[in-house]
Design goal:
185 residues; globular; 6 strands; six-stranded parallel β-sheet
């Protein structure tokens, strides 16, 4: 039996060149080989509407099944207007229904918030934590990960600076321990 943990990565920004996506991709190389990461795209999930539950759209079922297969979830998100992006909250809502079959139930999770500004998207990070409590995701309490000034953390070739790599390596080590301590399976 493999000890590799399957981590579904949810990026809160839809832009292909988003800072959240760039940071997530950099983080994958900082984790041990015991974590396998896959970005689970949320652009095509479709807006949640309870009227559609009798015959859910394919985007919902594909998303729900992928989250259910994951051992853990890592969220990397920007902050929009002191909150989480609507597309991210929608994905959480879609994955949480029907409530007795929530794809999120009991998953260990980690949160990284990023911004080109100075506060590290702290409001989005905390609002996401609040939403995850409601769907029973065990969000890692620390180290908290707020990344400010993200636009200046990469060199011309796209490589993340060493200082940030060091911080994120510690985060990823803690996240791996969190997954092991809180695994549902």
């Amino acid at each position: 039996m493999s000890s590799t943990k399957d981590v579904a990565v949810i990026i809160g920004s839809l832009r292909k060149e988003s800072w959240s996506r760039k940071l997530a991709l950099s983080m994958f190389g900082l984790a041990s080989g015991d974590l396998k990461f896959e970005i689970v795209e949320i652009a095509d999930v479709g807006l949640y509407n309870a009227d559609l539950e009798e015959d859910p759209p394919k985007g919902w079922t594909v998303f729900r099944e992928r989250i259910k297969r994951a051992d853990a979830v890592l969220f990397v998100t920007p902050e929009y207007n002191r909150s989480v992006p609507g597309v991210l909250k929608n994905a959480i809502d879609v994955g949480s229904r029907p409530s007795k079959e929530s794809a999120w139930f009991g998953k260990p999770g980690g949160i990284v918030s990023v911004t080109p500004g100075g506060l590290g998207a702290m409001a989005a990070n905390h609002q996401l934590r609040q939403a995850l409590v409601g769907v029973n995701v065990a969000a890692m309490p620390g180290p908290e990960c707020y990344i400010a000034g993200v636009a200046g953390l990469f060199d011309e070739s796209g490589k993340l600076n060493e200082s940030t790599q060091g911080f994120l390596t510690k985060f990823m080590t803690a996240f791996e321990a969190w997954i092991s301590a809180n695994a549902v399976r």
